[in-house]
Write a structure and sequence with these properties.
Chains A, B: Its main location: cytoplasm. The structure is a homodimer of 329-residue chains. The first copy, chain A, has 329 residues and is of the alpha/beta class. The first copy, chain A, is built from 13 helices and 8 strands. Chains A and B meet through helix 7, helix 8, helix 9, helix 10 and helix 11 of A and helix 7, helix 8, helix 9, helix 10 and helix 11 of B.
């Protein structure tokens, strides 16, 4: 029996659609609140890719798919829900008002999570009568495959809500990471943005193209990041003397004027156009859905490759598969 | 027949040792110049791990190993060499003087490459009589597994030297990336440093531990970076409207005060100690060599997983395997 009864999702964009797919593929019924008349078509496309990826990931013993309902009526969506995941546009006031409404409409004991990639839970819960059950649960695209979900509580979030969320996301095959201090953009997005900003400078200054930068990542450091992150990789790079040696040797380099850390590149039309042209060229005429499929196949292959090693995302997958087996017996 | 006759390596540290392993495992004889009395012991340990990883990567049809000679005599090392790779400490004057000596001692047509992770080739070639044959060829740890090598020419580097280096590194199963404009730290290290600097801030400010930061990478974005880099991933994240939409939506976030971009954290003893303690805890009592083995096994598994997809590092591996087969028939 799942820890989730009825799931209500607010918003069916790239992230909300990904949540819907993960829940449905885990056999959970989903009511999706989305006023967009295109919502059903978009969800259908997401599910086509997600179903294929999930079947590759878990060839045997998958739960039977949950039932999807799409509605433009918020009260209908959250009525009777035990778990609510919001993935609306990133505007504070919009989200605050949405949570105030949901707070009044949903059952008292429903857990309410926001997919925001940067807004603070303390601000998100400001207009709620029962703010203790709200937290941020920030996932990563594609939500139906990547294990990470960052959990961030606000000043009024109850510790029990965090614990409940941990259990819930683990039951969906995910890896919850509790971000212990409330900070804008949390952990992963700050790291991604630091990398992205430097990458934008390299394109703007004509040092490298989008493709060259992607190659510099995926043929080198990206393969290390995927399984060990950055600290443990540098720990090993320090050789026998480990991290202390590494920091002594490479720490000072941070003071050299290597990276464009003092400013943010101006997002001119010209820069946006240059990058869009370069990424189009890189995509080589493949459609968005085709690229998505390639990405998903690669993610599945990497996670499965790490599974026998019981390492990183492979360890999460191994545990998830055991859970699914347990659910059947 | 290899494009490399005799290879001379200057310096047998983590990088130089990794080069030695890649060359030896490709059947090439190596003379290693290293005055360190511990050089033979260290090389023995590197080869133990590298041999295992390479046997996992290429279970069948490996070339027979080349012969390793270690010498403290520079003239002996470079005499008759067709290819010279320098991996000495990162001090400009030391490298300049080394290259001036090598320039005089080595055969006129020897290709000379530097493993520097940041110094400019124009400066490295300053004291050479035949600077046209020097370039930077910057590899990534572990050199015997990761495909990427950044090639950077200086003002006096001949275009033919770059072309010759490309052929040479491809023959070793690598992916040369020509960095078209000379810039400190090239491409990959700038990206890694941007990420690393942000990570250091997060630890310094007590937001997250080294392990939590590594988890935020390896369970999420790291899995995407390993196969697509950053631009193509964001292109997909933009949904049907692609990169233009993504930039319009997320570009402005770069102007928010999310990341600590204005300064560099002070590398106090306390910060170094905190990070070293956290990475030690994360390592869970595993030795450096043990961690290295785990990392290598994971890298092999990821590259092999991508090979049937003919994608990224998997495509390089596929081509390399075909080359090795071709060499045998």
């Amino acid at each position: 029996m799942s820890v989730i009864g009825k799931a209500a999702l607010l918003g069916g964009g790239v992230i909300g659609g990904g949540w819907a797919a993960r829940l449905l593929l885990n056999g959970i019924d989903v009511v999706l609140f989305d006023p967009d008349p295109q919502a059903a078509r978009k969800m259908g496309e997401v599910m086509t890719n997600a179903r294929r990826a999930f079947a590759d990931l878990i060839p045997e013993g998958r739960p039977s798919e949950g039932r999807l309902t799409i509605t433009a009526d918020l009260a209908e969506a959250v009525s009777g829900a035990t778990f609510i995941q919001e993935s609306a546009p990133e505007r504070l006031e919009l989200k605050q008002n949405l949570f105030a409404e949901v707070d009044a409409l949903a059952p008292e004991d429903a857990l309410i999570c926001s997919s925001t990639s940067g807004l603070l839970p303390t601000e998100l819960q400001a207009k709620m009568k029962r703010p203790e059950r709200l937290l941020v649960a920030h996932p990563f695209n594609p939500v139906y495959l990547l294990p990470l979900v960052e959990l961030v509580g606000g000043e009024k979030t109850a510790p029990e809500a965090i614990e409940r969320a941990k259990t819930l996301y683990v039951s969906l095959g995910m890896k919850p990471l509790h971000v212990r201090r409330e900070i804008e953009a949390f952990i992963a997005d700050r790291l991604m943005e630091a990398l992205w900003r430097e990458a934008l400078w390299l394109v703007k200054d004509g040092i490298a193209s989008a493709e060259e930068i992607d190659d510099a990542i995926r043929y080198g450091c990206g393969l290390r990041w995927a399984q060990m992150g950055t600290f443990q990789v540098f720990n090993i790079a320090g050789g026998e003397a480990g991290m202390r040696h590494f920091m002594a040797q490479f720490g000072p380099a941070l003071k050299w004027p290597w990276t464009k850390l003092m400013d943010v590149p101006e997002m001119t039309e010209e820069l946006i156009e240059r990058i869009a042209e370069q990424t189009d060229a890189q995509a080589g005429g493949r459609s968005f859905r085709e690229l998505e499929r390639i990405r998903d196949e690669n993610l599945v292959a990497i996670m499965q490759a790490l599974e026998p090693k019981d390492w990183g995302a492979g360890a999460v997958l191994k545990q998830y598969r055991a859970q699914l087996r347990g659910d059947k017996t």
